[in-house]
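Assess this one:
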Amino acid sequence: MNGLGRVEFKDERSRAFGVNKILSAYKPRQNRMWALPTLFPLDQGEEGACVGFGWAAELGSLPVQYRVSNPYAFELYEAARREDRRMGNDWSEGASVLAGAKVCKRAGMVGSYSWAFNVDQIIDAISQRGPVVLGVNWYESMYETDEDFKVVIDGELVGGHCITAFGYQKTYRGEECIAWINSWGPAYGTYGVGYLPVSGLERLMSEGGEACIATDIRR
C-alpha cells in the first residue's frame, strides 16, 4: 500500500501570514501549469514520508526549481519529524506540513512561506505565485484516479496526505480542477499527476485541510 503520513497540526500564529497579502486582487485568474523537474514523480513507497516529498515537489518545481531526489525528500521528512518534536509533537510516524515549511526556511531554501485559507486563495496562489503544498484527508477512492485522471472522493477515511498542487485548469474534462503531483511514482494518475475538481478541494479544505506556499524564494 502506498504511504501517507500527513499529521494535522496547526499554529494559530500562521493566520498572520496569509497569502492574500501578496496576491493581486486585480489579476484575472488564468490556467497555469508550473513545470516539474524531469526526475518527477518521486516515490515514497510505503513510508509515511509524504511531507518530505510534498515539500520536495514544491522546491523542485518552477519558480524555485532546486535539484531534488528521492533521498533528498526522505531527508526533508526526517528533518520535519525532528522539527515536530521540537514543537512538542512526538508522532509515531508522519509529520506536519508546518514542520516541513519550517525545515525549508531554516535550511535557507525559502526565505518565507505563506498560508492559503480557502479555495479561492489556493487557486489564485497557483495562478499567480507557484505550486502549493496541501495537507488533506485521504479517502479509499483517492488511491487511484478515474479514467480521466480525476480524483474522486469516496469511501472510508484512511489517513492524511501531503501533496503538491502545481496547476489550475478552468475546464478539465468539463470541470474546474487543480492538478497535483503525487509521491507514489508514475503509476498514479497520468505519470504521477491527478486532477482534483474544485468541489473536491472545497470539501477537503472544510475538513481541516491546509495549504502552504513558498513566497520568498532563495536561489
Q: What stands out?
A: Residues 70-86 form the longest helix (17 residues). The chain has five helices and seven strands.
